[in-house]
Write a structure and sequence with these properties.
This protein has five helices and four strands, in the order ββααααββα. By secondary structure, it is an alpha+beta fold. The strands form two sheets. A two-stranded antiparallel sheet has the order 1-2.
Length: 123
């Protein structure tokens, strides 16, 4: 999937350069078209998909990936709970947990806003 070559370094040691083979490029496109559920739900894995999504030439396929992420973010989720009840930041005595809650909520809202705008642009 990858091809390695050595090129002269700019100041000292030679550098190793990796590039995709034709099969590697095809596999990248396949994985971008159909990311796994964890590649949609896990923020770090999703950001890897997002960083490479521009290589997927079909805007409708790009939009489908973004829509999956938006659907995931809009699904009901419980970040913190106690006795089966969903907690709000105001319900927490710990200012650090309040901070985690508020940051997660603001980040998710910003991402939903971006996804909504970007999906409209891709349509």
């Amino acid at each position: 999937m990858l091809e390695r070559r050595t090129e002269p370094g700019t100041s000292a040691a030679p550098r190793q350069v990796l590039s995709l083979t034709d099969a590697g490029g095809a596999e990248l496109l396949r994985r971008l078209r159909a990311p796994s559920d964890v590649e949609i739900s896990d923020r770090n894995r999703y950001f890897t998909v997002l960083a490479l999504l521009r290589h997927l030439p079909d805007r409708a396929e790009q939009a489908a990936v973004l829509q999956r992420r938006l659907d995931f973010l809009q699904a009901p989720a419980t970040f913190f709970s106690a006795a089966g009840k969903r907690l709000r930041a105001a319900d927490m005595d710990d200012p650090f947990r309040q901070g985690m809650f508020e940051i997660a909520r603001a980040t998710a809202q910003a991402e939903r806003d971006w996804l909504t705008r970007t999906l409209a642009e891709l349509s």
